[in-house]
Amino acid sequence: MSNAVNQVTSFVAMRGISKKYGNVRALSNVDLSVDSGRIVSIVGDNGAGKSTLIKVLTGAVSPDEGHISIGGRQVEITKPSDAQGLGIAAIYQDLALFNNLDISENVFAGHELVRRTLGVSFLRRKRMAQEAHNLLTRLGITTLKSGRQNVGSLSGGQRQMAAVARSIGMNARVLVLDEPTAALGVREAESLLEQVRTLRDEGMAIVLVTHRIPDAMLLSDQIVVLKSGQVHGLLDPRQCQLDEVIELIVRGRS
Amino acid sequence: MTRLDVGPPVEKARTSRVSVTDLLAHRESGILIAFVLVFTVMSIISPSFRTPFNLTVLAKQMAVVTIMANGQTLVIISGAFDLSQSAVAGLTAMVAGVLWFNAGLDPVLAMILALLTGAAAGATNGILAARFKLHPIVMTLATSTMFTGLIFVITHGKPVIGLPTQLLWMGEASIGPMPVSVLIMLLVVAAMHILLTRTLFGLRVRQVGGNREAARLTGVNVHRIWLGVFIISATLAALGGLIELGRVGNAIPSIGITLLFPIITASILGGTLLSGGEGSMIGTMLGAAVLTVINNSLVILQVDIYAQSVVQGALVVVALIVDQFRRGQLTLRDLIRPEL
What we know:
The complex is a heterodimer of chains A (254) and B (340).
Chain A: H1 3-9, E1 12-21, E2 24-34, E3 39-44, H2 50-57, E4 65-70, E5 73-75, H3 80-85, E6 88-91, H4 103-107, E7 114-117, E8 120-123, H5 125-138, H6 156-169, E9 174-178, H7 186-201, E10 205-209, H8 213-219, E11 222-227, E12 230-235, H9 242-251
Parallel strand pairs in A: 3-10, 3-11, 6-9, 9-10
Antiparallel strand pairs in A: 1-2, 1-4, 4-5, 7-8, 11-12
Helix pairs in contact in A: 5-6, 6-7
Chain B: H1 20-25, H2 29-45, H3 52-77, H4 85-101, H5 107-130, H6 136-155, H7 165-172, E1 174-175, E2 178-179, H8 180-198, H9 200-210, H10 212-218, H11 222-248, H12 260-269, H13 281-300, H14 305-326, H15 332-336
Antiparallel strand pairs in B: 1-2
Helix pairs in contact in B: 2-13, 3-8, 3-9, 3-11, 3-12, 3-13, 4-5, 4-6, 4-11, 5-6, 5-11, 7-11, 8-9, 9-10, 9-11, 12-13
């Protein structure tokens, strides 16, 4: 099998992942490989198991079977903080941002900069605000007043960029995006995808879950088609047509 | 890198000059204005209001409410409620009295053990809310009943009188013109303000209250945060109970029982969002100040005792309506066109 070699050397390697919710098989024996500097898109109909698969990777869901290795080393991911510790960042469909907190508190959520005094962890607020501001400037967002602005007051695109900044801020090596453009306008979506490309070029391993097949075709290095919790196809978007992908999503592997 | 266009520009940075609108946008400004207003009006219309004696009584009453309400505010910010605070205050006061009187312990040791009892009560609440995932309102109502029951089990309903000065010190004594309880209040507010706004724990509390699922996905241990929050709330309730003990002078089993309503009122008046995520310790102190001044005014102006309850209840209703506006759940248009 040609991708057997690929499987051994991939930066992210999920093997034989299975997950049941009661009697429903959400995933059965699913493999997923992502190399550094590559974008792998996961596509499939509603209920195909896309979200469950990436939630296993980000520690939000524990699999019943299977194992994961990162950088060639087998790892245990049982909770979100395990995944973060391994450099896996996630941007969820519903953003998982805190509207009641400011930009810097969101960007650094889960990996805050602290100074310990008398056993108490104090936030380094000025430095966090400064670094958040620098990150957002690096992402091209120059319209924000300061890192102390509340995230609740931002536009959809700015909020997504805050979420992207969060993953860069934590020095993530793997970025998982769950329907990142679902709530965005056309121009905002383009900006975000442009940013995802830049991160790929900087060497990040990126997993993208999307309903927008044309986005997946345009952006990714490999497309994984899931149906009923199983992998029905591994496609190279440069060597296949949109129709083929849709056919696989709807009918599965014949 | 290309500059990305992500939506309309947000408000341009202003010059460093602070405008009136900036000040008004501050969370605590509304309640501060309310306080200045009621305080000034009362000082003008009533000579007995502005006597040093009355102001000291006022400050001591406010101290107990503020200290306990600071704990309540932390709990509400984390997305829960603690209805057991007044019961914990009563339990603590009685435990201190009984340990001194029946067990013959040193008063200071009795107070320390009483505070630890309060903290243990908070840990019980925290474990029930976090581990057993019980609804905080009903759960703390239940533990409140348990703690109140414990008071009567311990004391058989009998008061402990003739308490030593050490036990009464926090609620009774003054350092110069400053009542010790007010000093403790200022220390508590300062510490709680720093805890909430400057520490990692405070940020975790705001994360859990703002978006619990996002907090979980971020790797926050929600259980541990709730446990900490309930322990702090009950410990402050216990501190309030010991101060109340000194203010009242005797350990009577019903001590602290009427404090719950003022505590929650102070927290709401202080701008704590009932849905969680936002609130201020300084605002809560100002809320307690407004509440205490209004209650005191009603007595001084000889308002009928039953009418006083009407005013106190109405005050909370008004605060709740303001809370609805702040959360954007209600607009003026909704009021004008109620059919929508």
